[in-house]
Amino acid sequence: MTEITKTHAEWAVVDRLRAMLNETPHAEYNVTQSYGLCVAILAWVMQRVRTPASSSNSPEDRAAISVKADLDGQNVEALPWGLNTDGPELVSSDFKGFTAFNFLKWLRDASCHGDARKVFPKNKDGELIGFKFHMKSDSDQKVRSLVLMEADLRRIGSALADMYCKALGGSESFAVDAQSMREKETAA
After folding, report:
1. Is 86 exposed, middle or buried, given 0-12, 13-18 or 19+ CB atoms closer than 10 A?
2. What are the extents of the domains in the chain?
3. N or C terminus of the chain: which is more exposed, having fewer CB within 10 Å?
4. Residues near 51 by Cβ (< 8 Å), separated by ≥ 6?
5. pLDDT in tens, 72-122
6. What's the half-sphere exposure (Cβ side, CA atoms, 13 Å) at 22?
């Protein structure tokens, strides 16, 4: 049996969240499911990529630092993020020119900070169509908000998880070893 390292375990968690996000969505709760999985990926990866460069001792730390550098070099309007900053009310021009890192940090902060409610369900004609994220920026005190639909949540969460997993372990044998990590079964 292959020894499962800390790096394997880290990869497996994010890969499993990505796999669940990419599966056929739940028939009744597809938007809620996409939100939950995207936020879990955002919380995990964005917390991890903020690892200080001075603590780059482990492979996980070095991978996280490299992902942050990649995110800093990407514009949020470009794919895979694909944020439409010139569209209808569901998107916002407030994010024009943002780096992927700055946008994803903002999104993580809006969805994960417990200091005040910043995420609201968006419904249209009695159907949940997405979630509105609302937050004031620390740097310029500007209030920014946008609505992400199910497809946006899936695209953003999947792209972030994919980027992180590639940085942690790019080889096929690494992925096979990491995927071999079992989860503890619950007692019936």
Report:
1. exposed
2. 6-179
3. C
4. 61, 64, 65, 68
5. 999 999 999 988 877 655 557 778 889 999 999 989 988 887 666 689 999
6. 12
**d(C-alpha 45, C-alpha 17), whole Å:** 11
What does the alpha-carbon distance between residue 84 and residue 97 come to, in Å, rounded to a whole number?
Answer: 11
**Coil, strand or helix: which one is 47?**
helix
Report the SS3 class of residue 173. helix
Q: What is the pLDDT of residues 28-86, one digit of tens each?
A: 899 999 999 999 999 999 999 988 877 667 888 888 899 999 999 999 999 999 888 77
Task: State how far the Cα of 73 lies from the Cα of 76, in Å rounded to an integer.
Answer: 10
Q: Judge contact between 122 and 128, C-beta under 8 A.
A: yes
Q: Helix (H, G, I), strand (E, B), or coil: what is residue 50?
A: coil
- pTM higher than 0.90: no
Task: Decide if 4 contacts 180 (C-beta within 8 A).
Answer: yes
**Cβ pair 21, 41 in contact under 8 A:** yes
11 vs 176: CA distance, rounded Å: 11
